[in-house]
Fold:
Amino acid sequence: MDHAIERLVVRHARRLPVPAGPAGDGAGAARQFDTALMSVGFKLSAGLLEALSGLTEETVLATAARTLDTVRELAGDHVRHNAYFKDFPAGVPDTHDFWARCVAEALADPAARRTVAERLRTGVLNLLDLPSYGTYRHTYEEMLAAHDELIAAAGDRVTVLHPGRPLDEESTALYLALAGSTTPLGDDHLRDLAVLAAHHAHGPGPGPGEIPVREVRAVVNRARLAAGADPLLDTVTDVLRLACALADGDVTLREPTRFRPLSRPVRRALLGGLDAVVAAGPAKLADVSVHREAWKRLGERLHPHEYPRWPHAAEVFAVARGEKAAPSFDGRLEELLGRGDVTGAAALLAPAPGRLLRALDRLLRTAGSPEELDAVVTACERALPGVSGRVVLSLREHLLNRTGEGGEHRVFVNRTGGAWVTADTRPPLPDAVRARLCAALDAETRRRLPAPGRLLVDPAVLDVALPLSGRATADGLGVLPRGSVSPVEGDLLRFFTYWKQTSRSTDYDLSALVLDAGHRTVAWLSYTALTAVEGTHSGDVTDAPEGASEFIDLRLGAVRGTYVVPQVNIYSGEGFEEVEESFFGFMLRDAEQKGRPFEPRTVRMKSDLRGPGRVALPLAFERDGDGRWHARWLHLYLKGSPAANRVEENQVSVAVLLRGLLARTPMTVRHLVDLMAAETVPATEWDGTTVPDGPVTYIGLERPADLPPGSRVFTPENLRDLIPA
Structure:
């Protein structure tokens, strides 16, 4: 278990807890460790190298083996990346010449000749039926032998690992940070939290004080229940989420959960908690109807009729079955708005400030007089202290994008990354109303932000979007939240994807769509277009029982368009959530560096592909007016077709979606920095060399090595902690 916890600390904090062990002369082993890390794009900080050097060689080597496994997986180097064309990016043939060669080889093969000839006579021949198409024709070792060694360059990625505190302290800090997150966590972070919660629920260490996010609370409650502690419950939905967690179901309640039989102690805990919640607030029964069917299924497992001592719990299931009336909050709201009573609707929502802010735009659009507008805005201003900082910033972002006159596109992105576009038919909000609300929201955010003292900021982080939801960011290395913009520097941009099927033959296709400034298609690279002016495709692999990789090499200077949109299409087989593993990433290198198709130290980003739909859009690349390229992070999944998804078929939908997303302005780190700087001395721009003489609040893409003790550090790994509670 300690090794699993250590792995989580390295992944989340980029810190390596210095292992406890006897003193010794581990300097030589530590230098070897550092050299091995550098081959994967990582490095020991000076402080960590010194700390490890004082341990025995055996301790250092054991630590090195575990840590190398962790960072290699972060960079995508834990698997073998073979390419269909072993000389890639050299030696990639013209697409039609390649297909003709595959047909000729099939006709020369006695086992395939007859079948291929018959299909040629009918005029329809499936490439997948050709024996030389879609499967590797060489070994991984033969592919390696065809490439020169990578020439190291100053621009290669170096991710520094810093010395951590003892493992127990690092583990506790990570547990409390995840449990106390002010924003929802992604699925990977929820799984990591479950491991940490199970580890800490039985121990004497501190527990989380407040758990603002309900699905996070469900994960912690499951661990508390297993440890014999009372779960933390204050709504009926908390109980339902806990039941879903116990069944290994969906604590977000998006997907139905199949509830399992429950032991008597667990049933008593759930029913007792439910009874206490309803007894303390009978109005909370109104929330039952939102998840009526789930409550019915849970009731079949809890048998509330067997426990007459908890009558309030039985009321929940009576409401779910329709035997007891509990007017829903939303029903009363709709009744008021149906009568045009905007002031009454605002008064109804006042005791529920979160719902008021989420309904604010509708209330403002429905208001028919200046008096009603003022009543709604006043209600919002009074409600602000009662909502989370995430909701305040989300509303601020919403208002930032409510400046149009209607007729533009609206982009909807759900919590799983599914996206769709529709026309924006909403009337504009009055400028004075927007200005008043924005001022109130900024004042409320500023009030909650901690006094940063001396503020040190890496300019590269300013255009990173605030992670208002953990589901806007995939798990991986160098990944930024949806909407972030980051510079891209290098001669060659290389995309890669890897997948390994679980049980069925599975074919993923890496493609790249090139669009002009008007979002019209210029070209694409895919298995149907292996070469173009922009670059080359590594070839189509159609089965991945042992794992498979595809690559696209782009010469940025040769790109004829303004946008490059890489995508991963599921042609056939298992979805992104069904395969054993799948991920996407990109590398940057100089033209003279050469090297293998996959070089971990040139990897700038690697993210897991785990989402709905059949087409993944991890990010897009945009060239500005000065010719410089930037990455814009998307983390989206299109529904696509059940099979045979191709870049040719989705180019229009991708262009429309990209146009809508580019028109949207996200709330970025710059906004919080400006608010903090207004309350203290102006922020100092970090130049990468100057060492401050006292504690600072540092915000950047990487943690500097020599910050003074007592400094607070915010990087993409913990940027969610910057969002005020």
Observations:
- The two ends are 31 Å apart (CA to CA).
- Residues 616 and 637 are 5 Å apart (CA to CA).
- The longest helix spans residues 57-75.
